[in-house]
Amino acid sequence: MIDNVDIESRLTEIRSRITAACKRFDRDPDTVNLLAVSKTKPLGMILTAARAGQVHFGENYLQEAVDKISAVQPGITWHYIGAIQSNKTRPIAESFDWVHTVANEKVARRLGQQRPNHLPPLKVLIQVNIGGEASKAGVEASKLATLLRSIIGLPNIEIRGLMAIPSPETDFDRQCDSFRQLRELKLEMAALFGDQLPLFQDLSMGMTGDLDAAVKEGATWLRIGTAIFGERA
Ligand SMILES: *Cc1c(COP(=O)(O)O)cnc(C)c1O
Q1: Contact between 96 and 81 (Cβ < 8 Å)
Q2: pTM of the model
Q3: Alpha carbon of residue 70 to chain centroid
Q4: Residue 7 Cβ < 6 Å to ligand 1
Q5: Which of 69, 150, 175, 179 would you label with 132, given CA atoms 20 to 30 Å apart?
Q6: What is the pLDDT of residues 24-36, one digit of tens each?
């Protein structure tokens, strides 16, 4: 069990790791955001991290997330990074600020329709199945342009960029290979769609084990759980 002091020092440590990676790979640290992935971790840890200045939190499990979100004060920005069942989009549309795991037209449409009008548009990232493995979530790279074409202009959602969860690799160059593919896809789509995707800037990639490679290849959102909150049970 990690106590509160640990979370503060772990946050400080991960921030300096990110800063060091930005220096090493010539990235502007202001463009690399830390998403604290708090799935399975208790609310107390989230509040401690928030008091230590952490603003963005990511959750994977819908019911757990909705319970946590309704229990905290405003001021936290919530990101949904879990699998989406198309019949369970409403709580996502109502409770989150960002969704990183949109991978089909139906889900995008429902999220837009169900987004309450008093809230700003839902910021969405399209999850790409970078390795192309049948078992993995995300749209195939070859179908990304078609998907984007079908969801551009939907009301109440803003298409902000791409996300991927490549298979775990320990080798740095292999880690870079997957992230580079996502970066290149983003450039390709930006060139293809131009002004139709005015806010298409983000790359959500990199976790505790591969954040340096992700920074090198252009990540704007690092999704970090273990390094902040400890191992999950
Ligand atoms: C759990 C999870 C993370 C965090 O992974 P760590 O290895 O604990 O940093 C990041 N992204 C997604 C999609 C996750 O499910």
Answers
A1: no
A2: 0.97
A3: 21
A4: no
A5: 150
A6: 999 999 999 999 9
